[in-house]
Amino acid sequence: MYFFTSDEHYGHTNLLRLNFCNRPFNDIYEMDQEIIRRHNEVVSDRDIVVHAGDFVVHNQLSVNHYIKQLKGEHIFLKGSHDKWIKGDIQHIWAKKIEDEYIVACHYAMLVWPKSHYGSWQLYGHSHGRLNLETMGKQYDIGVDNNNFYPVSFEQIREIMKTKPNNFNLIKKK
After folding, report:
1. Residue 96 belongs to a domain with what CATH number?
2. pTM for the full model?
3. How many domains does one find in the chain?
């Protein structure tokens, strides 16, 4: 099973200090432990989790500290704070799952690969504050928008049923 998430910001003390996204935690330790708990509550070791950026802001040692605690197989995309990721890392991940073509990126896009054929775009970065209800098949997979849980493919499929078609959808004759 596939899960999607973004913007965990593990270990990012400024996130709470600046109250950037109104997270309801007393300190960074409480935040980290609760996001890990919720992740492991729904993800199994056999699941694949796509992290669409801003996983952690620290070095590789702290990244490994968090990864070891999380269930699942992990795919990381580069976000705004992922300086720990070295080399040629993906900014965009695309895959057909069942009959749906999914594009994940840290940032919301106006158009994305195969959007004119009805593909879905999953994004983070906005911490639940970007309203794209009329833009089509897009969804904010960030933890702030999903009660600090990763979102399953099945959940996203149900969400997409309520969304309008992409504005650039090619109509079949």
Report:
1. 3.60.21.10
2. 0.92
3. 1
